[in-house]
Amino acid sequence: YANSAQLNNLSYKENNIEIQLSGISYSTNQLDFYYQLNPNDEWKKINGRLLTFVNLPYGKYSVKLKCKNIF
Hints:
The chain is mainly β. It is built from no helices and six strands. A four-stranded antiparallel beta sheet has the order 1-6-3-4, with no helix packed on it. A two-stranded antiparallel sheet has the order 2-5. It is elongated, with a radius of gyration of 13 Å.
């Protein structure tokens, strides 16, 4: 399951973005988080629970996130 987050109306100076992640696990298993910055990009694993984008070029972005249990 993946959720989309639209980051709308940011100025060209707002090019550093941090997204803090959380998820629910009904067991003691660890969660892995993944993101996709644009629809055609590959899913990339996130280390930890903070997703950071630094010096993003001006443009339109759509961030998709997903998490899964590690068994």
